[in-house]
Specification:
This protein is 59% helix and 15% strand. The chain contains seven helices and seven strands, in the order H-H-E-H-H-E-E-H-E-E-H-E-E-H. The strands form two sheets. The protein has a five-stranded mixed β-sheet. Strands 1-3 form a two-stranded antiparallel sheet.
Length: 286
């Protein structure tokens, strides 16, 4: 009888030990599973969080964009309304008398048209709806053509535009590259003083092609440099006439061509914009 009791005690201890092992093992498995589950859950949530962050940022940019657009359109609309009111009060007057009001309307309509066209381009670019050509194009020829198109505005402001283009074949969209040149040259003309000079230069080397536009203006304040390519950004004291979207469009064009754009102040005064673009490859040129 004593032997039987001892055997049962031993069996009981063995069962208790096995139970403890099973409980501890099960607890370890649960903890490990919980740990792996938490890790994988966090990893799975990362793209969701990033997506939500991107969406919030996109919505914020859209709200800011709409607010800025409304602000930019409000000024020309105010001028047009004022001019229309003037014409109503002087409806019986000949055109020679009210001609100034008509000129104001025409000027502001042109300004609004430019703003709307730039807005539509940026909106379409954000949605990926703008397709660019990629054909061999001589950046030197494009620079000469784009700069010459601004001859009259430059003459009206008493600014000389000097172009020094060298052959530089890149793969890109001729119309967009011409728009890029005109944006940078127009910006330089508007910031140049009377009797000022705008220099446009195109160079090519094995590393790529470069387009440089320099002006004799007052230069750019250090606090404005990081924001120049933001939409609707205007530095204090900037000349009027622009839409506030030109440099943002320029940066977009450069980016879509696989290049980069830089801006800095010249030691001798004025600003310098430099665009770097990759040279067209032999296969791309064919």
């Amino acid at each position: 009888a004593v032997q039987v009791i001892q055997d049962r005690v031993a069996e009981q201890r063995t069962l208790e030990t096995m139970l403890a092992v099973l409980l501890i093992g099960g607890l370890v498995v649960v903890l490990v599973a919980f740990g792996f589950g938490a890790v994988y859950a966090r990893r799975a949530l990362v793209p969701i969080r990033e997506s939500l962050t991107t969406q919030r940022a996109s919505l914020r940019r859209q709200r800011e964009f709409a607010a800025d657009a409304s602000h930019e359109l409000r000024t020309p609309l105010t001028v047009i309304r004022s001019s229309v009111d003037y014409l109503r009060r002087h409806g019986s007057e000949p055109v020679e008398v009210v001609g100034t009001a008509l000129e104001d309307i025409d000027e502001e309509v042109g300004h609004m048209t430019s703003i709307v066209e730039d807005l539509l381009l940026l909106a379409r670019s954000d949605s990926g709806a703008v397709e660019l050509e990629h054909v061999p194009v001589d950046l030197g020829d494009v620079a000469a053509d784009g700069a010459s198109a601004l001859g009259k505005p430059a003459t009206d402001r008493g600014v000389r535009v000097e172009v020094d283009p060298q052959p530089a074949v890149v793969s890109g969209d001729p119309a967009r590259l011409r728009q890029l040149v005109m944006i940078l040259v127009d910006n330089a003309i508007r910031h140049s003083p009377t009797d000022g000079r705008v220099a446009v230069e195109v160079r090519s080397d094995p590393a790529g092609a470069s387009l440089t536009v320099e002006d004799d203006g007052p230069g750019i304040r250090p606090e404005d440099l990081p924001h120049l390519f933001e939409r609707f950004y205007r530095a204090n004291g900037a000349p009027g006439g622009g839409t506030g979207l030109g440099l943002a469009i320029a940066a977009w064009i450069v980016d879509r061509h696989g290049g980069r754009i830089e801006v800095a102040n010249r030691d001798e005064g004025g600003a310098r914009f430099v665009v770097h673009l990759p040279i067209a490859t032999t296969s791309g040129a064919g």
